[in-house]
Amino acid sequence: MTDTYTTAIKRRIPIFTIGILFLHLISCKPMINEERPYPYTTVPGDSLHTRIYTLKNGLTVYMSPYLDEPRIYTSIAVRAGSKNDPAETTGLAHYLEHMLFKGTDSIGSLDYEKEHVELEKISELYEQYRTTTDTEKRAAIYKDIDSISNVAASYTVPNEYDKILNSIGAQGTNAYTWVEQTVYVNDIPSNKLDQWLTMEAERFRNPVMRLFHTELETVYEEKNMTMDSDSRKIWENLFAGLFKKHTYGTQTTIGKAEHLKNPSIKNVINYYRTYYVPNNMALCIAGDFDPDATIKLIDQKFSVLQPKEVPHFTPAVEEAITEPSIIKVKGPESEELVIGFRFDGINSSEADYLTLADKVLFNQTAGLIDLNLNQQQKVLDAGSMLVMMKDYSTHILSGKPREGQSLEQVKEMLLAQLELLKEGKFPDWLLEAAINDLKIEQLKLYESNRGRVEAYVDAFVWGMTWPDHVSQIERLEKITKKELVDFVRNHYSSNYIAVFKEHGTPKSETKIQKPPITPLKVNRDTSSQFAEKLLALKSEKTEPLFLDYKKDIGFFDVNPSIKLHYLQNKENELFSLYYVFDIGKNNSKKIELALDYLSYLGTSKLTPKEFSQELYKIGASFSAFTSDDYVYLKLSGLEKNSAAAIRLLENLLVDARPDQEALEKLKEGTLKERTDAKLSKKKILFEAMTSYGKYGPSSPFTNILSNKELEQVTSQELLGEVHDLLQYRHRVLYYGPASSQEVLSELRSVRHYPESMKTPPVADLFRDLEQQSNLVYVVDYDMTQAEVILLTRDELYNPSILPLSTLFNEYYGGGMSSVVFQELREAKALAYSVFSVYKTPKQKDEHNYIVSYIGTQADKLPEALDGISILMNKLPKSPELFASALNGIQQKISTERLTRTEILFNYEEAVRLGHDHDIRTDIYRETARMSLADIEQFHSAHFRNQKHVMLVLGKKKDLDMTTLKKYGTVKELTLKDIFGY
C-alpha cells in the first residue's frame, strides 16, 4: 500500500486536467443504449468511447476499450474515505484498506473453520485492550493477542492475494485512501480478466481480519514515517486551518496515534459492512477487452455482492474566513510557505473559474507566477495548484524563499500575483493558450489506460456525471476574461490560511512504541483451495512481442554527424522531440548550470518573458535534463506548431543573450539550494550517503563547482557550454505525426551544421570502491524512524546475468509477495517499506550492486538488521513462491507492449548497456528454463558472506551503536563529508 497521504495529495496536483476533452463537443447529452441485455450510457463525441453501466445490485461500471497493448488497467473505487471515519476511531478507512489485502474465508485460508475460532478470540481481546487503561493489564492482554495470532496464522497463507496476482502477471497491485475514497488498483494481462474478476469479487465478498496485529504495526510504521515528513506537517495544518468543522480538517487519513494504539476489529468490520456495498462502489477499467463479453463477466462475478442503503454524509458548514490566519510549524527541512483559499466543491460553478485562475497564475511557462517570480528569480521556487474535493475545494499558492528572504516576503509576492489577476493585468491571449494547454494535458493523460481510469474514479467519487466531466473544456471556452477577473475579485481577499513551515526542531510528537511481536510462521509452500482452482483455470496464451530496432525505428542522417531516430505517432496530434548528447556532468561541471541559466534568457529578438510567452502561445514546452553521462533537450507540443517550436528553441540555443543580473540571482539561488539539500532527508540518504558509500568522498555527486568556482563563473563561459553542445555529435529522437522526410527537412533547414564536429571534453572517471571490509556510515538527523541502505558491490555488468537476476529479484525482494517483504513486514512487522534487489547499472563497464533498504522505528533497528542479515546469508526456499515469480515474469513480458517514446528510449538504454537487441527476448526465453536451484545458486554466489557498506540515517541518541558495530566499523559522517561542501 502506498504512502497514503502524500500519494493522494500528489495525485491531486494536476486535478484540473482530469475530465477535459480535446474535441469540441456538439452535445454532451448522454445516450442510453437499451437494446442490449446490459443497458449503458455513452456521451456523444467522447474520445474514450466510455460505456457506463449500472448493474442490478447498484455496482457502477466504467469502461474504455483501448487496444494499445494486451493489458487492462483497473481500479475499484469505494466512496468511503477518512472523512467518513468515526471521530473516536480515525484512520479506520485507511486501516481497512490494508486489511483488504489479507484475504477472505477462501483466499489465504487453509482451514477457516479453525482459524475463525481464533480470530473471534482476538477480536474480543482487542475490545478488552482498548478499554483497559492499566499498563500491566494491557501488556498481558497484548501478550494473549500475540500468542493467539500465531495460532491463527498457522491456518493461513500470508499474502496469498499478492501471490496470486503476481502469478497471473499483474503489475502495480496497490491501493490508496484519501478523504472521500478508497481505491484498489491493478494492471492485469487481458487474458487473465476472468481470474482477476473472480479474485476481486471474492476479495470484497467477505474480507477476513487476519494477521491484524502485524498489519497494525505496519500502519504504526506508516504513522511514524509521517511524523518525519515536513510536507505532512504543512498539509495537515493547512487543512486544519481551512476546515474547522468539516472532517477534511478535523481528522487525518492516517489517524490519531491514540486511535491506532487502541483499535477495534469490530469497528473495522462494521465500517466494511456499512460502506463496501456495490451501490457505493465503481469498477473502472480501460484496455484490451470486449465490452459486451466483459460486462457479462462482471455481472456474473459481482452479483454476489448485495446492495444496502449507505449512510448519507452531511458536510459540516464552514464559517466564512474573513481575515488571514498564519500557522507556524517547524521541521528539519528547508523553509516553505503555502497559502490556501477555500471554495465550494468540484460540482459547483466555482470549479471552472478555479481551473482557469490556476492556469493563468501558474502553467510552468507563461503564467503570472512563472514570469514574475520564477523567471525573474524573485523567490527560489513558487507555484499554484488546485485540490478538488466533493464538498469543498482549495486553491493553494506555494513558495520557497531565497537566502535572506522571509516567508512573509514570499507571501506578499504570491498575493501580489493575485492582485495582478484581479486587475486583469495579463494578456488577452493567455486564456485561449491556457485552454489549449489543458487540451494537450488531456491528450497526454488519455494516452495511458491509467489516465483514463483515474478520470472515471474521480467522476464517480465526486458524484459528477460523465457529460459534465467531458464538457468542461466547452464550458471553459465560454468564460470571458472579464468574468474570470470578476470571479477572482469577488472570491480572493483576506480569506486565506497561510502555513509558515520554518526550519527548526518540531514540537515533539509521541512516537508509537514497539509492541512485543512473536514472528509469525510464513506458510510459503501451501496454497488455499481457492488459489489452486483459480490458477488452474486455462486462459488463451498471449505471445510476447519484442522490439526489432531496425524495423520499429527509422534511422536517418540529418547529416553525417547528426542522426535522427524516428517513430510516427498515429494516435493524436502531439509530438515529442529530443536532442540527445553523450556528454554530461562528468564531462563538464558547468553544463547543468549552463542549461539552468538558459531558462532565464531571451534572444536578440525576444526578451526572456516574450520567449516564454511565444512558446506557450503555440502550445509548446521545453525542458532540459542532465545526468552524469548525457544531456537531453526536450521539446513537445502540438505538431501543427512543431516547426515554429523548433525554430524558437534553435534560436535560443544559438542566440541566447547574456543577462548578468539573472546570472547573479542564479548563483545565489544555487547556493541556497545547496544549503537546502543538506536539510532534505531524501537527498541526504538516497543521493549523498549512497554516493559516498559507493565512491567515497570523491564521486559524481560531489563533482560540482565549488562555491568559489560558482561565484566566479561568467555568462560567457556558460553560453559557451550551450553553444558547444550543438558542435558535438548528437542524435535527435522524434515521435510525432509528421513524416520522417518532413522532420529531416525541418532539421536540415533550421541550422547550419559545421563541417566537422568538436570532440567533447574527456569525462572525469570515478571508480566505485572495492569493499575490503564491512563499514557502517552514520549520519545524525532529527527524525522518528531510522532508515538504512545496505550496499554490496558485485561483478561488472554482463547482459547474460539479466534473466537470472530478474527472476531472483521477483522471488527474493522486489515486491509484496517476495521473501524479504513477507519475512520482514508480514511476519515480523519490522517495517512499512522494505526491499532488497540485485541492481544492474545504466551504463556498461559499471558494477552491479545489491541494494537493500529498510525504514523502521529506531527501537526496532537491531531486529530489522538481524532480519536482513539472516536473509542475505540464508535463502528461504519455496517452490510455490518460485512458481509465482516465474509465472509473473512470463505473463508480464508476454503482455507488455512498448509504445510511443518507450521504444526510442528502450533503444537508448540498449546502446548504453551494449545490447544489440531487445534484452527482454533473453529474459523471457531463459527464465522459462530456470528452476529454484538456479535461484539458490545465485543467492549463494552473490549474496552470501559478501562485504557491505551500511548507511544509517537517524537520530544518533536513539540509535543502538553497539548493535551497529556488529555489522562493521562504524564511522560517523558529517553533512560536509557526504556533500563535499
TrEMBL record:
Its cofactor is Zn(2+). It comes from Pelodictyon phaeoclathratiforme (strain DSM 5477 / BU-1). GO terms for molecular function: metal ion binding; metalloendopeptidase activity. Residues 266-436 form the Peptidase M16 C-terminal domain. SUPFAM superfamilies: LuxS/MPP-like metallohydrolase. InterPro entries: Metalloenz_LuxS/M16, Pept_M16_N, Pept_M16_Zn_BS, Peptidase_M16, Peptidase_M16_C. Belongs to the peptidase M16 family. Keywords: Hydrolase, Metal-binding, Metalloprotease, Protease, Zinc. This is Peptidase M16 domain protein. The keyword Calcium does not apply. GO terms for biological process: proteolysis. Residues 74-115, 157-251, 596-691 form the Peptidase M16 N-terminal domain.
